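Review form for a predicted model. The reviewer records the input and the model, then writes brief findings.
Reviewer: anonymous (R2)
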Amino acid sequence: MRLSLLLIPVLLIAGCTQFPDVDAAIGDEVAKAPYPALVPLGPLLTADSPARLDEGSEAALTARADGLRRRARALRASDPVSGDEERRLQERPGT
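Model under review:
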C-alpha cells in the first residue's frame, strides 16, 4: 500500500516531463519522401525460398550445441580474474 502511495507522485512528476520534439529529428528529405508501396502478404509467404532445415541440420545443430557446452564448461573452469586483478579490486576505495 505504501509503495503504491509513493509511486503515484513519481508517476505524476514523470507525466510533467518535457519530451524532445521527435519530428525535428527527421530530415526534410525523409519527411517529403513518398510512402513505400504496400504489397499483399500472401505472395511473400508462399515465395520459393530455400528450406532453413535439411537432412544435415540435426547433425550440425547437435555439433554446435556440443561445442557451446564445451565452451561453457571451459569458461566455468577458468579463473576470470587473476590473483593480481582480484587484489587490485579488493583495494579499490568504496568497496
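Findings: The mean pLDDT is 81.
Further findings: The chain is about 55% helix and 0% strand.
Recommendation: see findings above.
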